[in-house]
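tool_call: predict_structure(chain=1)
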Amino acid sequence: MTFKFDKLYRLGAWGAAACMVAICALIALQVTFRLVDALLVLVGLSRLGLSITGVSEIASYLLVGATFLGLAYTFVHHAHIRVTLLITRLPPAIRVWFEVFGLIIALAISLMLSYGLVGLARESIQYNDVSSGFVSIPLWIPQLVLATSVGLLCLALAEALFMAIRIAIRDPSSFCEATAPDESEGR
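tool_result:
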């Protein structure tokens, strides 16, 4: 399957990668500050006391971004775990309708989740909700990342659903389930 919005899904994947790099940088910096303090104490000097306030809270929000921003990309590149033990034994003409059914269910759940996340972000903006840690981070920021990520997944699911329906109606016997990344991807 060729996805028309693949560049958008790749942008989400790059966002997830940026979150992971930011987590690594924050943790490495925090460890370096502690190591410098330990070495100073070891040689008889006083600590500098450098630290990043709220690093664990910031890292946890970045981890949520890293997890959810990659959802659509991993879906279109067939990296989500799928249990296909029974449906792989079915003929393609029947299997495509199971695929359509599964995509409808996944899209419905994702749309409900997206709707709820958008409502949650609106509430956080309306009431000026902030995190309760050392750093007061407006909660609408991570919530908006979540809503955007699930929205991207909804777009990918809708795109896959339309392609599966088209195959199911036009030529159901030609359906082959994509289980590995496209070979054209490496070019």
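agent: Residues 179-187 have pLDDT under 50 and may be disordered. Proceeding to next step.
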